[in-house]
Structures are given as C-alpha cells and as structure tokens.
Amino acid sequence: MSNGLYHLQPITSPSEPSGKPIYFPEIALTRTPPREPVAIADMAEFFGVTHRTLHFYEEKGLITAQRFGLMRVYGRSEVTRMALINVCREVGMSVSVIQDLFDTLSTATSQSEANLMFEEALIARRRELAANLSTVHRQLQQLNILLEHEETNPGRGPQSKGPSLDDMETRCLQLMAEGYTSMRIGRTLELKADEVASLEASIAGKLGAQNRFQAVAKAVLLGMVAN
C-alpha cells in the first residue's frame, strides 16, 4: 500500500512449470481488492461491470474463472488482468487490441519492459484518437459552413417551406411540375398568354430561379410540389 493506493504485483503464469512471472504494467487501484478466492459477484462489483461482461472476457481468453464448489471464482492473477482490461477499456481500446497487448506482455522479461509496452500501446491509442478528433473537427467545420450558408440564404434548403405563393401561383406551379406547357396552363386556368407569362415570372422570382424549369427544380427540392 502506498499513498492510499493498492499497487498490483507481477503475476505468475500457471502454464509455466518454472513459475515464470508474467509482468504487467504498474497499475494502482483506489482500494484493496477482495480477498481470494474472489466470487464473481465481488469481482463484478469491484470493477463496476456485469457478470455478463466477465463471462465475455472469459470467452475472449482475457481472464479465467475457476470453480469453488458451485461458485465461479477468480484468483489474484485474474484481478490483475481485469484491472488492466478496465484501464484499456476506459481509453476506448477494443477487445482485439487488448488481446494483442496481453500477448505482447507475455514476452516481457521485466517490470520496466512491461511498463514500456503498455506506454507504447497508450501512445498508439492517443494517435488514433487524435486522428479521429481531426476528422470530427473537419466535419464540424463543414457543417458550420453549410449551416452559415443556410442562415444567409433562407428558404433554399430542403428543410425550408419555401416562399409563400397565392392560390393561383400554387396551382400554376403544380401544373408546371406536371409538365404542362404555358399554353396548356392558360387553357386549364382560363388565363391569357400574358397572364400565364406574368404568373410564371412571379413564381420564378419568388423562388430565385432564372426560368420555369429552374423554378420547378427548386420547388421540388423545397418540397413544395411532388417529384
């Protein structure tokens, strides 16, 4: 115990007859782990995970449970492993990356080497997060540009309701969208040619279009008429 923190010690591999130690990076816990054997409920409570999470880590070969009667229990080595898993998960490392880290740590021949291996893994994760952050910043900048454009050009985005048209303009626009010629629109709405031309010009002006075809295209984008 040092400075109120419990420091985990290197663990011994049960698969090594010689008792070869497996060095893990130095990790300090804020409280003393439960006494061995650690029941699954105590393990889950201590690390703030669910029983299902512990089973998942077992399936991935990261920790191993033993049987104590009908109970699943863990030894000190699994507490050490779980402490490292928790730290890695807190910084967003994937399970596959943690598996690779454990494989790498199994080759460490000293505590300092294990610490260095872990530091390299953390640096790699930091680079990954920095790259992701750069992408997010770039996307945010693009969104800001698009939103600023919409604010300075109201009524042009697909979410806008579009300009206000009177009943005759609305009917005319719908016919234009259906492919009616100006002459046919005149007959349908019982308007003279110059009245139709004036009506279409008014619609185009309100939509900021250069001609009737552009007016229809913009109206479709704005959801004012069916496509």
UniProtKB/TrEMBL annotation:
InterPro entries: DNA-bd_dom_put_sf, MerR-type_HTH_dom, MerR_fam, Sig_transdc_resp-reg_C-effctor, Tscrpt_reg_LuxR_C, WH-like_DNA-bd_sf. One of its GO terms (molecular function) is DNA binding. It comes from the Bacteria. Residues 158-223 form the HTH luxR-type domain. The keyword DNA-binding applies. Residues 40-104 form the HTH merR-type domain. SMART domains: HTH_LUXR, HTH_MERR. Keywords: DNA-binding. This is MerR family transcriptional regulator. It comes from Rhizobium rosettiformans W3.
